[in-house]
Amino acid sequence: MIEGLSFKEVYNSCEEKTIRISIKNKNGVFSADSPSGTSKGSYEAKTLDISEIKKKFPKIKKNFIGKEEVEVDKIIDKLGIENIGANFSTALSMAAVRAITKNNSYKLFLNEPELFPYPLGNTIGGGMHGGYMSEQEFLVIPLKAKTMKEAVETNLSIWKEVGKILEPFILGKNRENAWMCTLNDLKSLEILTDTAEDYGARVGIDFAANNIYNGKYYYKHPDRNFSAEDQLEFVLELIKSYKLFYVEDPFEEDDLENLVELTKKAKCLIAGDDYFATQTSRLDIGINKKAGNAIIIKPNQAGTILRTLEVIKTAKKSSFVTIVSHRSCETEDSFIADLAVGTESPVIKCGVFGKEREAKLKRLIEIWNETSKPKMSNLGKTFI
Predict the structure, then answer these.
(1) Is 176 considered catalytic here?
(2) Active-site pick, 44, 135, 137, 176
(3) Homologous superfamily of 4-103 in CATH?
(4) pLDDT tens digits, residue range 204-227?
(5) How confident is the model at residue 383 (pLDDT cuts 50, 70, 90)?
(6) Domain coordinates in residue numbering, the chain
(7) What's the per-residue H, E or C state across the chain?
(8) Which among 69, 248, 253, 298 is annotated as catalytic?
(9) Is 358 a catalytic residue?
(10) What is the predicted pLDDT for the residue at 327?
(11) What's the whole-model pTM score?
């Protein structure tokens, strides 16, 4: 039973204020922090300004005191996420899961996990996260790793080696600690692909196409602009030339037609983030139209863990690959590691370097070491 509920302002990796919610019960105090995204889709659950939530908190709090932790998400739905803010509801929902499980959140979803997710790590960055290129993320995934520790170390080794190669062109590290450099996107992609191959890893791209679309898709370096049809051909050419394993948000969030066409023609993971926005109603449309074959799962896009689980359940029924994901402005909260393991999601997108990213990776290794017969997911066998 919830005996106390507290609200605290903390800072995320972007040096912006976010929310920490703590639940007190007979077993102790259980807390969770809410992340936030730089690149947001219009369909995800809406946040509220922290100052507004702070004013509302004393009144909201009364709805939860004396209630069981398992009731939290249902109470949130009655209050309305739009009224209390997805940033508040997400932290509260995660804290409730931790309170129920005594900080072993994965056990609420699956008591004894077996299959672990491959970490998908942002290595060279651009777009809204900061960088020279227009695409938001060039990523690596260590599909030949046999253990979680090996997977984490492989991504870090690739990140370090790419940093050395790019050293003459380095601008620094962006919001997700991916390298920023002055090389154009194709040259950067070539370097990353060659390096990844040396480590038995594969490469992916998050286009975050909403951010480069304004009637056409505009790229900075080199300067070029594409119609929707041109963008489709460009993405297909990149998949073929660089043997891409993963493509995310290659079209703006309302272009379902070209997402369907790409899914027909490409033999790789085609993931939707802004289009699906961790919303069951949006995913249902994608499934029916065969638009994509994978979905980014971000709890704060849904607003509660219960809603997040409903989306994951829907995706799994239709063989959509679930990719549990961090946000660009993160904290050291590692909840998504438990969520990925507990739902046996084949991939977790959580970065490579930096304390906020490493917290998730360390938690994955920790759970692996607690598991009797762990093994990496079967995803690698699907597209290799």
Answers:
(1) yes
(2) 176
(3) Enolase-like, N-terminal domain (3.30.390.10)
(4) 999 999 999 999 999 998 889 999
(5) low
(6) 4-103, 109-383
(7) CCCEEEEEEEECCCCCEEEEEEEEECCEEEEEECCECCCCCCCCCCCCCHHHHHHHHHHHHCCCCCCCHHHHHHHHHHHCHHHHCHHHHHHHHHHHHHHHHCCCCHHHHCCCCCEECEEEEEEEEEHHHCCCECCCEEEEECCCCCCHHHHHHHHHHHHHHHHHHCHHHEEEECCCCCEEECCCHHHHHHHHHHHHHHCCCEEEEECCHHHHECCCEEECCCCEEECHHHHHHHHHHHHHHHCCCEEECCCCCCCHHHHHHHHHHCCCEEEECCCCCCCHHHHHHHHHHCCCCEEEECHHHHCCHHHHHHHHHHHHHCCCEEEEECCCECCCCCHHHHHHHHCCCCEEECCCCCHHHHHHHHHHHHHHHHCCCCEECCHHHHHC
(8) 298
(9) no
(10) 92
(11) 0.95
